[in-house]
Amino acid sequence: MITANIIPYQLATKQLTTTRKAGQLFMPAAFINDSEAQIQKLEKLIRDHFIGGICFFHSRASAATNFEGRQKVVYNKDSLQTLKDLIKRYQQAALYPLLIAIDAEWGLAMRVENTPQYPYAVTLGAIRDKGESVQKVGRQIAFDLRAAGIHWNFAPVADINNNPLNPVIGYRSFGEDKQLVSQLVIAYIRGQQEMGILSCAKHYPGHGDTATDSHLGLPLIAKSREELENNELFPFREAINHGVDSIMVGHLAVPALTGEQDLPTSVSGKAITDILRKDMGFTGVVVSDALNMRAISDRYPSNGELEWQAFDAGNDVLCFAEHNAEGIQKILKNSSEGQVERSFKRVWKLKEKALAVIHSGLPTSPGSAADLNRDLAAASLTLYQGEASIFGQWHREPLTGIEISRTGEQAFFRNIQKSCTLKVHSTADASLEAIAEEVKSERRFVLAVYPPKVKPHHNFEMSDEEIHFINTLILGKDVILYIFGNPYLLNLIKVQKARAVVIAYQDFQVFQEHAALHFLGKTSAIGVLPVTIGNQDV
């Protein structure tokens, strides 16, 4: 994807009026699956107000806008080509080249169907190779983004997830240890930079220790400045020290940083200008988290007021701004030219960096996504409980397999069956009651659990009956348990009586294939769980 040349800042600052410079600070949402009328509306916004960038989402029914999930997300197998075509159209509508951004923490697949998906951050946190694997992931994702015409990945997540009840970060964090998180954040940034993609550490000052989703409400972090410095802020300092291009500010109530009980950090001059810029020494671009999120949007009913407040606090780029025209006018009315100029300079310099790399040509592919995922599966598989000696032995004696899955036959048991006789029962084919009745006389089981959702909402969408069945089986039988999903699921399972518990983290086919090899004793589980599981007492 080739983007038009951009004039250097020294010329741009003379040629652009203050109105146009203000427009460069706005980044409205673009939706891959919009209607033609909606596309034309965004083109007009870009033309009329000299918008500086756009951030792509899947559709208007996607999570960032459809808070309660009332709108059905329609899948489009041609989303990647649609994305590329839209980028061309929007760039053509822009007088000055747009910065194209997206959330691609685990690859384009986070927003785009039929594109490579890489493991979640919690999976990568289980790999203890000093960040080498994460750097490869950052490089691979960046290659995919460049091929699509994207300049800026709003990743990595630098939040330390030290709250198991966190409804929105959790699996998106590398773990609960600040040193590990910092190491992997730096590795991810380096991987992206090698491929010329702009990086963004988020969500400053740290969204990990919260039990509220900021899409829906304002999370409160009631910690002292000292506690925050020692933990939450640590990865952001490390990211700054290692050249991160941008930092995204979360919508969080952190009184120790803002000086107010319920003022979001995203509109706090103390949190952004005084602490992030002056105290922490960050000179790059500051991006607001999506301004449509309810933690912040409901506070400012007057159109344009939120955009002004976010800019005045120190945000250079106003992501998912919904009232762009009004916001530009508010900024022009209330700010000084110098204030606009400082942000404009940072944004334009970032554009120069991104577009210089684009024009240098696409680098050689770092390799195959499938091969990389296969290596990551081998490096992350974690023996959470039990003795390694048990694997490779169990399949030599009578054994029953049970699959808790909503999507039909999975690769794990299919691969085990290539080496041994194993009768498998799946909840995709039979009820729990029927399975329980059929296996009641059996003694030894391997149980594979595929939680329907990776987010913890409603117990990962596991039913009470499914959880009860799992716990009853473990308490009454000899069970080896494999989890193909979020490891926090183990907080719902009474694993103490299990003969062994193995965490595979992902349900990708290559992860299941490697887990099958492990069960058969042909490989070891070398991963280390990056979070603490607080198991229930029996």
Describe the structure using short key phrases.
four-stranded parallel sheet; 538 residues; elongated; single chain; 11% strand
What is the helix tally?
Answer: 21
Helical coverage, percent range:
25-40%
Question: In terms of structural class, how would the helical and strand content be classed?
Answer: alpha/beta
Query: How confident is the prediction overall: mean pLDDT?
Result: 93
Q: Which range does the strand content fall in? A: 5-15%
Strand order of the largest sheet: 10-15-14-13-11-12
Number of strands: 15
Gross geometry: elongated
Q: End-to-end span in angstroms?
A: 57 Å
Characterize the largest beta sheet: strand count, sense, and whether it forms a barrel: 6 strands, mixed
The low-confidence parts are none
Structural Rg: 24 Å
Describe this entry's structure for a reader:
The protein has 538 residues and is α/β, with parallel strands linked by helices. It has helices at 9-15, 18-23, 36-49, 79-93, 121-125, 132-148, 178-194, 225-230, 234-241, 255-258, 269-279, 294-297, 305-313, 324-334, 337-359, 369-380, 411-416, 432-438, 457-460, 464-476, 509-519, and strands at residues 26-27, 29-31, 53-57, 99-102, 152-153, 200-204, 246-249, 285-288, 318-319, 382-385, 400-404, 423-426, 444-449, 478-483, 500-503. The longest helix has 23 residues, at 337-359. The chain starts with 8 loop residues before the first helix and ends in a 19-residue tail after the last helix.
